């Protein structure tokens, strides 16, 4: 069975509240599934799963959304909507830039990108899931998901589903310090023993197993789960 990126998981102190924020921002709706947390999604693209976690957020996330804009007015509307829903402006040392850096109600960073960004043209509202990571991990995920590399220069990589949509990018060195459990991680579907063996051959590490899932880590040490029994 081919692996599929089913959901981006986000640890949350208040999963239902945070799911409501992102559902309103993205136009997503609730999705029923048998696993943990509150899940929202749309007819295409990956879902978002919000899992309960009371540990405080102590560092910048290793992944964040880049939301696209069609005009300056559109960018301003997106920012205003996010602020109305409970987001806030963040200063992460970005300086004088054209994109706007925000945090959702639990402080998870995201950017509202200025219009005219050629790299994100045609990607949709969630233009990219921008990640801190090595070139090797970009290669790993390209092979794991069967998504082609759409950028591979100066140790920066990006992949995109053959169907289009959101790009996943990795910025290359220097990597940010790893400070405990990632608050954002992937859930994949389509598991069988052959696929798990393939992931390990590609550089994944087996961590643990639970009812209906296997947890692994990619070559950068980022944990992810492979779920059984879910389909699009």
Automatic annotation (TrEMBL):
Residues annotated as domain Glyoxalase-like: 8-113, 132-227
SUPFAM superfamilies for the chain: Glyoxalase/Bleomycin resistance protein/Dihydroxybiphenyl dioxygenase
PANTHER family per record: CONSERVED PROTEIN, HYPOTHETICAL FUSION PROTEIN
Protein name: Glyoxalase-like domain-containing protein
């Amino acid at each position: 069975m081919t692996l599929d990126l089913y959901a981006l998981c986000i640890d949350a102190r208040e999963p239902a509240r945070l799911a409501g924020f992102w559902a309103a921002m993205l136009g997503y709706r609730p999705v029923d599934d048998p696993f943990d947390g509150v899940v929202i999604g749309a007819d295409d693209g990956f879902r978002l799963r919000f899992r309960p976690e009371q540990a405080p957020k102590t560092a910048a996330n290793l992944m964040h959304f880049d939301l696209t804009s069609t005009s300056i007015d559109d960018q301003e509307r997106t920012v205003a909507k996010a602020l109305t829903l409970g987001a806030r402006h963040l200063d992460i040392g970005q300086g004088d830039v054209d994109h706007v850096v925000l945090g959702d109600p639990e402080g998870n960073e995201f950017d509202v990108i200025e219009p005219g960004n050629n790299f994100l043209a045609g990607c949709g509202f969630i233009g990219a899931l921008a990640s801190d990571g090595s070139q090797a991990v970009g290669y790993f995920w390209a092979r794991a998901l069967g998504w082609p590399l759409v950028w591979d220069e100066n140790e920066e990589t990006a992949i995109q589903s053959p169907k289009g949509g959101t790009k996943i990018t990795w910025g290359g060195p220097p990597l940010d310090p790893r400070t405990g459990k990632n608050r954002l991680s992937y859930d994949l579907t389509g598991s069988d023993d052959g696929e798990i063996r393939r992931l390990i051959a590609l550089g994944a590490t087996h961590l643990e197993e639970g009812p209906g899932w296997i947890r692994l880590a990619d070559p950068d040490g980022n944990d992810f789960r492979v779920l059984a029994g879910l389909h699009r």
